[in-house]
Amino acid sequence: MGVETIRFYQRRGLLSTPKRSEGVRRYGPDDVRRLRFIKQAQAAGFTLEEIGQLLALDAGENRSAARDLAKKRLEQLDARIAELHRAREALRRYPNAQRVRRVLA
């Protein structure tokens, strides 16, 4: 992960800025876990704002609200997957429909 990405997350409040040691920022295991979580949540389709909410809920130990947010996102993903399957099937039928029209013409 690039330095600019990490600094962007810091500016967004998703990651704290570590103390410097000899002019170098030192990130600990908790920071690394947090960065991994952010990337995984992004891969699951969460926005940075939603990721911030998840992190805040987890820090406040309001895990039921975090689960609800994750469940909502899962439902959205399932709906999107169903939509993509319908689009895929429509595209699969398209070449066959063109052949039928040519034969009937």
TrEMBL record:
Q: Which UniProt keywords apply?
A: Coiled coil, DNA-binding, Plasmid, Repressor, Transcription, Transcription regulation
- The record places domain HTH merR-type at 1-57
Q: What is the lineage of its organism?
A: Bacteria, Pseudomonadati, Pseudomonadota, Alphaproteobacteria, Hyphomicrobiales
Origin species: Sinorhizobium americanum
- In the UniProt record, does the keyword Signal occur? no
Q: Which GO terms describe its molecular function?
A: DNA binding; DNA-binding transcription factor activity
User: What InterPro entries does the entry give?
Assistant: DNA-bd_dom_put_sf, MerR-type_HTH_dom, MerR_fam, Tscrpt_reg_MerR_DNA-bd
Protein name (database record): Mercuric resistance operon regulatory protein MerR
Q: Which Pfam families match?
A: MerR-DNA-bind
User: Which residues, by range, are in coiled-coil regions?
Assistant: 67-94
Q: Which gene encodes it?
A: merR
